[in-house]
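Page 42, continued from yesterday. The earlier attempt failed because a stray header line got pasted into the input along with the sequence. Redoing it now with the clean sequence only.
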Amino acid sequence: MKKIFQQGMFWVVMVLMTSTAQADQTIAIGVAGPLTGAYAAFGEQLWRGAQQAAQDINAAGGINGQKIELFSADDACDPKQAMAVANQLVDRHKVLAVIGHFCSSSTIPASEVYAEAGILQITPASTNPMITERGITTLFRTCGRDNQQGSVGAEFIVKTLKAKTIAVLHDKDTYGQGLADAMRTQLHSLGLKEVLYEGLTRGEKDFNALVTKLKSVNADAVYFGGLHNEAGPLVRQMKEQGLKAPLVSGDGIVSEEFVIAAGGPTYAEGVYMTFGRDPRKIKEGTNVVERLRQSGYEPEGYTLYSYATMQTIAAAIAATKKTDGATLADWLHTHDVSTVMGVKGWDAKGDLKLSDYVMYRWDDQGRYAEVP
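This time it went through. Structure tokens are written below.
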């Protein structure tokens, strides 16, 4: 992972590069996520996707003749910082829409700021169900919900892995614990109860005592709700202690940074995770994937989700010729949008009408592929 200083300089340069046009001649859009720190790989996914989409839309003439101007906002996956940068996007940069945030624990508080300002917010990656259960009509997402991917995880553990003694771990965060609880709910509906339910702390690296506990309850499968920075060391120490139970997780580890955090492909191999069908393989996005790869960036994880989110915002503005959040939201609630990930439509809550979670497995080359 890049050093924090290098990451910071990168984002400063990006803001300078995308802030050259006059405000009255552009449509200002914010891109918010963890651009520095332990989860910066996810923030880069959001930025790269939004940036490529903005470049492509601008090259085609912009939105109703106006060019998109991007402003990045680094929330570091911290709720307080998310509130601060949300206010900056609204008050200083006068954004008309926001792509983000990444962490659900950042999206929830930041959404209150955008809602009060009447700004359309679409998160490409925040999956906690409560995001769209609070009646905020200007808030949408282009990803699924944790109750959906949690159910897929539970079904896979019980019916495919045929596990009987299942341990459920989480990182005590809105996303991680929410996902673990969703999986556990489905597990119970399948007639099984976990043998261990325990939280760990974000930033923690030594899980040997926890692994010893997993061994003591004879866990034959371990489910983890959380992000790659903790999942990596966890699975490494599981293997070092000889625990053969497979680790199953969610979309919080859908980054090559997971392999690095684990100590290499040897330790990451055999880990399972839920995520939507690989957007890099959807025909509508073929040309975009190629352009991103030619630029030296592999559009993994949520990169194309962010691209699709920019397309969604652009479509709503182009169709309505308005930029206020209420008008854009009304349009999105009643219209589908063609994106690099296919046609997307939203229900009254702002959730996708269709979700496509599947199971993936990390291999010995440090890559993930869908489980047949």
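Notes: The longest strand covers residues 26-33.
Reminder to self: strip header lines before submitting.
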